[in-house]
Amino acid sequence: MENIYSEEQKSVKTVRVGRKTVNFLLAFSKSIHVVEYGDRQFELTLN
Amino acid sequence: MELQINDSILVKNYIDGDEKALETLINRHNQRITSFIYSKVLDRDVAEDIFQDTFIKVIRTLKRGSYSEEGKFLPWVMRIAHNLIIDHFRKNKRMPKFEGSDDFNIFSVIKDEKLNIEKQLIKDQIENDLSLLIEELPEDQKEVLIMRMYKDMSFKEISENTGVSINTALGRMRYALINLRKIVERKNIVLTN
Known about the structure:
The structure holds two protein chains of two kinds. Chain A is of the alpha+beta class. Chain A has one helix at 19-31; strands spanning 32-37, 40-45. Chain A is elongated, with a radius of gyration of 23 Å. By secondary structure, chain B is an all-alpha fold. Chain A binds chain B through residues 12-18, 21-22, 24-26, 28-30, 32-34, 41, 43, and chain B through 19, 22-23, 26-27, 30-31, 34-35, 38-39, 44, 47-48, 51-52, 55-56, 59-60, 63-65.
């Protein structure tokens, strides 16, 4: 079968963020708490 | 065969306090979101920063209970990332960055147009000396020179104001400059810095 594909196909670089960033986000998620008081919300960040 | 839990179930579990659900969501969409950001910004570090900011917004929104689940978690995250990419380019447009190298310094090309205090003093001194020299010119030449150089008048206006022809005004200006040079030479004055 004749090759119908172009030799130089558009390349899309696939990248991922590193483990460090993922761990930071997981730690951030664990540290943040939302407290509701009446109709207001407060964000608490625990170290 | 591993059963993949739906995004919407993971989101619900996360809102209910299951932190592991967030890790699954991040890992599941990591490559897709990062590649999308990278395709726009073409910088690994910037892409990583935007990815991080995107998920910080996701986490805050989910924790606050502001997210309405419509089975569109990924498009929602992509939209946040897209907005942050736009913010990034807007910020960079406002504050264009330039990184010099060892053999090229931007400050050798651009500089503050304002004179420094030393140059300003020299300029004032020269202008002061020049006004004294002009005082030594014959009255008709002095009049034309002041009108042309200090009052920025055209030779037509000078001729109308002094009642002489344009050619005479031009001639007086020419002699004023010649005489000024002579005075400068005679008094051995250096007017430039």
